[in-house]
Amino acid sequence: MTDSELIVEIGRGDEAAYRMLYERWKPLLVGLIIRRHPRLRSDAEDIAQEVLLRVWKAAPRFDGSRGSARAWIWTIAVNDANDRERAATVRARSLARLTGDASESAPTALASLLSSEWSRDRMVALFSRRGMTPPRLMTLLAVAEHPDWTRAQYAEALSMNLNTFGTHLYRARQTARRALARHG
Asked: What is the pLDDT at residue 150?
């Protein structure tokens, strides 16, 4: 069966067609992701699985008259990998901004804190052990997770007035700097 025929069958709920497409495409997608985004090497298999899950979910909407199945799958894969790479860059920049050091010379521990090797739980544990109070920690995490928000949006999301948010952010940055200096 061609990829287009498989996708049509997947759109009808055919699990055997999905398995066939999965086995055919997973190695190709992993290779594509590694070639285009070497920094994502450790996440390539996960991204490929997510892409194939998106193919499963979107298969009923596939329109072969608008392009080939190959181009459709590649587009999903490239977009997902690009999004993942952009998100990692944004997280690194956000963390640098959180600690008040947005320069290129920020410590590597700072840049890696929100990378794929650091989970949110590990970050919470590190900062909690270093004396960061829950409101300050939540402030720091909110800024890390939503780098494009305004201070007013953060304050509203955290149910704080603007001045309280500013104080928590200032003190959270100080604590984060100290924790990262000891950790890194």
From this structure: 77
The C-alpha torsion from 77 through 81 and 87 to 89, rounded to 10°, is -160
pTM given for the model? 0.52
pLDDT of residue 171: 75
Residues in the chain: 184
Q: What are 23's two structure tokens? A: 């086995």
**N-term to C-term CA, the chain:** 53
Domains observed in the chain: 3-87 (1.10.1740.10), 90-183 (no CATH)
124-159: burial string, b at 16+ Cβ within 10 Å, e else = bebbeeeebeebbbbbbbbbbeeeeeeeeebbeebe
Residue 158 to residue 8: CA distance in whole angstroms: 46
Instruction: Give me 13's structure tokens.
Output: 């709920």
Asked if 119 and 144 count as a contact pair (C-beta separation under 8 A), the reply is no
**In this structure, are residues 100 and 176 in contact, taking their beta carbons and an 8 Å threshold?**
no
Maximum distance among all alpha carbons in the chain? 63
**Average pLDDT in the 45-51 region?**
92
Q: How far apart are CA 140 and CA 98, in angstroms?
A: 7
**Token pair for 124:** 């919470």
